[in-house]
Write a structure and sequence with these properties.
single chain; mainly beta; 19-stranded parallel β-sheet
Length: about 400
């Protein structure tokens, strides 16, 4: 083949075995490759098609395969590097084999319900800029779990996915993990090497491990998860910190956290009675917004809340320690603190009224109150998923 045939300023469209043979004669293809919907290759007894390309090692542009609804097997035996890799609407694709693939700029997998495993060989993909995996049959992400650094990572609505474990050390844009329920057993997530991130959102996870995480520049948010405890022992600062609707959560431990540069929200975590894992937290530059049925809150190092302060609970709770912080001008914005509420609400809502017997017994100190007789009253919390800063 002439060299010119291994390059294309546009896109090489593979619609037949002859087109595939043309690509297979190149070791490097300069341009993009698309496998079209009406792929004209032989079908097996099930009406399925298989496509294998053995020689090409690098595609400088994108590899796109969308809506080839009869394609059940796709193999690139020697491919090591692609700029963009998109698979979408391949309803019977059950085999994806690229044992040499190590580097991809953008990986976008959508609507692949029959694909259960990724065969990317040995170490798998170690370099990627962005990853989107949604609505697949994958039960694990083996093949991309050795990524070292990534800008954007979004994995959602993969009903069979049971575990995500990545070796990344930094996430420079965003991480979003949600609605992957591991056939209702819950998704476990682990990022043992992750030290810095920009924005992280976790939903519907049964466990989350972030042992090395030191800094999140924007929001770190947890919504609707089923884990009982959460710890980030090395986290020192976050842009925003949010725990909402984690119904099994009983304990949060962030012993090194000193500053939150945005919203600090804990809301509607029905099993969370004691909030005492923030022993060094000093500065909240946004709003502090707690609502639920907790009876004990300890913030012994708190010296500054630049936004609103809202603390409402259905539990038996004494606000005197936080009233004192407000009197000492620790809180710069609007201040609300109230216990024994029938409908404890988030920032911007007025307390619903104090029931009889709401005065709690116990002792208080700056930023700390321990209730000796906890009371939990009926009513649902009115919480906003994302709190706007209220001054």
């Amino acid at each position: 083949m002439h060299t010119a045939q291994c390059s294309n300023q546009g896109t090489l469209t593979i619609s037949s075995s002859a087109d595939a043979s043309q690509l297979a004669s190149c070791t490097t293809y300069s341009g993009s490759v698309a496998i079209e919907t009406g792929l004209a290759v032989p079908k097996d007894a099930n009406g399925h098609q298989q496509l294998e390309i053995t020689t090409v090692k690098k595609i400088t542009g994108n590899l796109t395969v969308t809506n080839a609804i009869a394609l059940s097997s796709l193999k690139f035996d020697s491919l090591q590097s692609i700029s963009g890799f998109e698979l979408g609407g391949l309803t019977v694709l059950s085999e994806l084999s690229m044992p040499a693939l190590a580097e991809v700029n953008q990986l976008n997998f959508t609507a692949l319900p029959a694909l259960q495993v990724l065969d990317f060989g040995g170490v798998g993909i170690t370099k990627a800029v962005s990853v989107l995996i949604t609505n697949t049959g994958l039960s694990s992400l083996t093949g991309i779990n050795n990524l070292q650094q990534i800008d954007t990572f979004n994995v959602n609505n993969n009903q069979a996915l049971q575990n995500i474990s990545l070796q990344v050390t930094s996430i420079t844009n965003s991480l979003d993990i949600e609605a992957n329920d591991g056939y209702q057993t819950g998704l476990t997530t682990s990022f043992p090497m992750l030290e810095t991130a920009t924005n992280m959102t976790f939903r519907n996870c049964s466990s989350i491990s972030l042992p090395a995480l030191a800094n999140v520049t924007e929001d770190l948010g947890f919504y609707g998860n089923t884990f009982e405890t959460f710890a980030a022992p090395n986290l020192t600062s976050a842009g925003g910190l949010i725990f909402v609707d984690n119904t099994a959560l009983t304990n949060i431990s962030l012993p090194q956290l000193t500053s939150i540069n945005g919203t600090y929200q804990i809301a509607n975590n029905t099993m969370l009675k004691k909030i005492d894992g923030f022993t060094k937290l000093s500065v909240v530059k946004g709003a502090l917004d707690f609502s639920g049925n907790f009876t004990d809150v300890e913030l012994p190092a708190l010296t500054q809340v630049q936004g609103a302060f809202n603390m409402q609970t259905s539990g038996n709770f004494d606000c005197s320690a936080f009233d004192k912080l407000n009197q000492n001008k620790v809180v710069k914005g609007n201040f609300v603190c109230s216990g024994s509420q029938t409908k404890p609400g988030s920032a911007g809502t007025k307390p619903s009224g104090t029931s009889s017997g709401s005065k709690a017994s116990g002792t208080s100190s700056a930023g700390h109150f321990q209730a000796n007789l906890p009371v939990v009253m009926g009513g649902s919390s009115l919480v906003a998923g994302i709190l706007q800063l209220i001054l």
